[in-house]
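Onboarding guide, step 5: your first structure request.
Type a short instruction followed by the sequence, for example:

Predict the 3D structure of this protein.
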Amino acid sequence: MAGFCGVTNQDLVIVAMLALYGRVFGDMTRYDKFGKPTLDMLLEPSYYHEALGLFERSGEGDFVERTAYYHIVIDTLEMVHAITKDERLPGVVDNIIVHLFDALHIGADGLTHAAWGAKLKDPAHVEEWIKYPYTVSSYPLLLEIMDRYLQRRPDGLLRQKYLEFEKTLAAYVYADGSIPSALGGDSIFTVVGKTPVLWCYLINRLGDQLQDPALVTLPVLQRSEGPLSWKADSRMWTIEKEGARVFAGMKTNPSGISIGPEEPFIGGNLKELDTPAIQEITHNPH
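The system replies with structure tokens like these:
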């Protein structure tokens, strides 16, 4: 039995790191002993459903890798191929990517989203696409993978799906330049924005057209869904539920978090966040 932790995308990370170790130190024995047997196992039909371009997430069966994790699967397989020249991997990579488009569908908001995962009827058929939660924070990573594929293998129909998917990402960029981690799940993942993955995507997309943006002072912003609210300016933030503080912190000190409404907050006056210049209201999409 090969494998390390029993989760496919995580096992592939270890496989890729063993291959990278071999290239850096000129010693592939660890990859040959531990990495390749694991890769061989994961490419067997019991794990890799070639007809669907999907991997089982673990050895339990009927629990395929969720869509958001395929950027890890693709990146690691491409790294292993670049180092080992394993001839099996380019075809596997392309097959996975082209089937990522199968997860795209029109959501209740009229935009193109990627389903969270799939429920299989058998290894060759998807019984149902599990839509929610929409892991929006994975969209930039999936878009990059899709674009690289379409650069290699142009396809007008898939390119149009890609462009519609990209519009969805643009539609969910918040006023402070962040995006939701997810939609349709716990509201905390919607109101608290995520930034780095979007900005990395934009940097890569703009390429030579990238310009140094002008510095601006972030105005007070409030973003809410149901009873949960995120309030922030350029210095501090707070998460409130039904008007009561749950967490608060200073952006310059990510580990310094005040928990609950009574714990003292040091570094600023949170009352300054009570008069937002920008208010955003999100809605659960289902």
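Each response can be followed by summary notes, for example: The CA atoms of residues 165 and 171 lie 10 Å apart.
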